[in-house]
Design a protein that fits this description.
Layout lengths: L2 H16 L7 H9 L20 E4 L2 E3 L2 H11 L6 E5 L5 H8 L3 E6 L2 H13 L6 E4 L12 E6 L8 H4 L2 E13 L2 E10 L2 E10 L7 H5 L2
Parallel strand pairs: 3-4, 3-6, 4-5, 6-7
Antiparallel strand pairs: 1-2, 7-8, 8-9
Amino acid sequence: MTEAELAARRDRMVRRTIAGRDVRSEAVIRAMQTVPRHRFMPPGTWELAYSDQPVPIGLGQTISQPYIVARMTELADVGPGSRVLDVGTGSGYQAAVLAELGCDVWSVEIVEALGLRAREALDATGYGRVHTRIGDGYRGWPDAAPFDAIVVAAAPDHLPLPLIGQLRDGGRMVLPVGTAWDQELRVVTRTGDTHAIEPVCAVAFVPMTGEAQAARG
């Protein structure tokens, strides 16, 4: 399949399943039309790159459904110059979408092999300015805090307080919370020493591992 054919599929997917649903941000729609999702997937899966579904990328992980990436990005309410923490680099796709919006992105991945592969994909697609490291996303990236937004691509079963503490006053965290079969996408907005929680919709993400998993007992 040629790059032109893949680009045509990408444009069709965005028009039908992202702009055609409830994503209204023109900047997010343009970013989704620009970032080549297939370049963040194993070559043998490129036929599925522009179907609106999660796709396995190995090591028990998936690349998220494009609609969910777009929705979470819109909910984060970020733009050029925003400082954003991406928890769970995975394939690197979400980090690339945020970088395409002009955000300064810090991305943490707990699985070393995935993080290294994502680093290569980000460099190869022109998003080399994204900061990446291997580590436990539950603890975030304290040295780079505070962040305007945090986007989390794995589900803890409770709100991770270390991440809330790394939001600036008024900052927003978008994350799934819950167990394997009962997860809810939420927006957490920090106001001083308190935070407000807005439920969004039911979702299905891989569980957050590391310290978040240990906290579940």
